């Protein structure tokens, strides 16, 4: 089953851009998911289990690297917001 997640991060830090940019950079290194980042959120899509694993690991990585942050997410199971593109 596919899963699409719209994710926004709000660091508990006055200098909020480095934690957000670091988290997005970390996400971009993860295999077997597709991402699209816009001004207000990042959309993640892929296999349900893989996306949930990436989110779990990403939240832990973010906390270890940058401290506390609030993550706001919308989950849409069974939907592929970013279909694979022909290359």
Quick structural gist:
The chain is α+β, with helices and mostly antiparallel strands and about 90 residues long. It is about 35% helix and about 35% strand.
Q: What is the tally of beta strands?
A: 4
Q: Rg, please?
A: 13 Å
Chain oligomer state: single chain
Counting helices, strands and paired strands, the structural category is alpha+beta
Determine the mean pLDDT.
Answer: 93
- Approximate strand percentage: 25-35%
| Number of discrete helical segments | 2
User: What is the total domain count?
Assistant: 1
Strand order of the largest sheet: 2-3-1-4
Helix/strand order, N-terminal first: EHEEHE
The rough form would be described as globular
Percent of residues in helices comes to 25-40%
**Spans of 5+ residues with little confidence (pLDDT < 50)?**
none
Distance between the amino and carboxyl termini: 23 Å
The largest pleated sheet is described as:
4 strands, antiparallel
